[in-house]
Write a structure and sequence with these properties.
49% of the residues lie in helices and 13% in strands. With 236 residues, the chain is an alpha+beta fold.
Length: 236
C-alpha cells in the first residue's frame, strides 16, 4: 500500500492536523524506516517502484516534511526527522529492514534519480552508505536458516565421531579378547566330584563289631526246697 499526501504551506491547520493523526496511527509501533528521495522519477518508473514495493509488503508514504516531523515527534521516531532535509518518502514494513534496504538499493542502482537518504533502526540513525551495507546482510529467514545449519552441523559431527569411536573401541576389545584367548592355557578337566566322593565312601561298608571271648557256662544249681530236713538219720 502506498499512501501519498501533499500539504502546502498555507494549507488549513485542520487538514494538517488530520494528516498528522493519520500518520501517527499508521506508524504506531514502528521501529524501523528508510527515507528516500523520489523526486526526479517519471510516472512509469514511479508506478513500477510502487508495484515492486507493494509485492513485498513494503509501504512508501510521500508527505511534506513538516507533517512528517509532527507525526514522528509524537512517536519514538523523533530522531528520524533529521533525515527529512529535502522532499522525502518514508518506507517501512516488509519482513525486516534488511529486505527494505535490499529493495531500495536495487532501485537506486537501476535509476540514478532515486536516492537513499538514510534509515532509522531501533533508536539509531544510519547513513545512506550504511543502508547499502545493511542490504548486504542476511535477513531474518536467512539468518535463522544459517543458525539451524550451524546447530545441526556440530550435532552431526558429534554423532559421526561417537559412532566411529564406538566402532574402534569394539574392534580393540575384540582384538584383545582374541589375543588373551591365544595366550591362555587350555582349561583342566574338572574333577568328578572327588571321584564321586571316593565311591561314596566305599559304599559305606559297616565296620565289624568286636566280639567278646566266649565265657564258660556253669550249670544252674537246684533250688532248695523249703521245709525239707537235711540229712535226718532213719529210725532215730
Amino acid at each position: 500500500m502506498v499512501a501519498q499526501a501533499t500539504v502546502g504551506a498555507k494549507a488549513p491547520a485542520r487538514i494538517k492536523t488530520l494528516l498528522v493523526k493519520e500518520l501517527v496511527e499508521d506508524w504506531q509501533g514502528l521501529q524501523t524506516l528508510v527515507v528516500v528521495c523520489p523526486i526526479g522519477l517519471d510516472a512509469l518508473v514511479s508506478n513500477q517502484l510502487r508495484a515492486s514495493l507493494t509485492s513485498k509488503n513494503i509501504k512508501m508514504t510521500v508527505v511534506k516534511n513538516s507533517v512528517a516531523r509532527l507525526a514522528l515527534s509524537q512517536l519514538d521516531l523523533a530522531p528520524a526527522a533529521e533525515l527529512l532535509d529535502a522532499p522525502s518518502a518514508i518506507c517501512y514494513g516488509g519482513e525486516s529492514v534488511v529486505d527494505i534496504a535490499r529493495e531500495l538499493v536495487d532501485w537506486s542502482k537501476k535509476v540514478d534519480a532515486f536516492r537513499i537518504r538514510g534509515a532509522f533502526l531501533e533508536g539509531q540513525l544510519f547513513s545512506a552508505e550504511q543502508v547499502h551495507k545493511l542490504a548486504a546482510m542476511l535477513n531474518r529467514v536467512e539468518l535463522l536458516a544459517q543458525i539451524a545449519g550451524l546447530i545441526a552441523s556440530p550435532a552431526g559431527r558429534i554423532a559421526s565421531t561417537l559412532t566411529s569411536l564406538g566402532g574402534r573401541i569394539a574392534g580393540s576389545i575384540k582384538t584383545l579378547a582374541e589375543k588373551l584367548a591365544q595366550q591362555a592355557p587350555p582349561p583342566e578337566p574338572a574333577p568328578k566330584e572327588k571321584e564321586e566322593e571316593q565311591d561314596v565312601q566305599t559304599e559305606e561298608t559297616p565296620k565289624p563289631e568286636s566280639s567278646a571271648p566266649d565265657e564258660p557256662t556253669q550249670p544252674p544249681r537246684p533250688a532248695k526246697e523249703e521245709g525239707t530236713p537235711k540229712d535226718i538219720p532213719d529210725g532215730k
